[in-house]
Amino acid sequence: MAAPSLVEKAGDLAVAEGEKKRQGVHWSRHNSEAVSALRARWLDGGVR
């Protein structure tokens, strides 16, 4: 099992990557929060 801080950091990096402005791709803060919440549920086993 991964340490919670490592899992949290991985989620932060995934969201930060999506927020970068490159090639017309940009996530709004609202979408970033939605992706973070979904990822957290998935990692907790709440999404199947």
Summarize the structure.
With 48 residues, the chain is mainly alpha-helical. It is built from two helices and no strands.
Main sheet attributes: strand count, strand direction, barrel closure:
none
Unreliable spans: none
Strand tally is: 0
Q: Kindly provide the radius of gyration, computed on alpha-carbon positions and rounded to a whole number of angstroms.
A: 12 Å
Bin the strand percentage. under 5%
Pattern of helices and strands = HH
The number of helical elements comes to 2
Secondary structure category: mainly alpha
Distance between the first and last residues' Cα: 19 Å
Arithmetic mean of pLDDT: 72
Q: Give the overall silhouette.
A: globular
How much helical structure, as a percent, in the residues?
55-70%
Blueprint (SSEs and pairs):
Blueprint: H1 4-19, H2 29-43
Helix pairs in contact: 1-2
Architecture overview:
The protein has 48 residues and is mostly helical. It contains 2 helices and no strands. The longest helix is centred in the first third of the chain and has 16 residues. The model has no long low-confidence stretch (mean pLDDT 72).
Tags for this model:
single chain; 48 residues; mainly alpha; 2 helices; globular
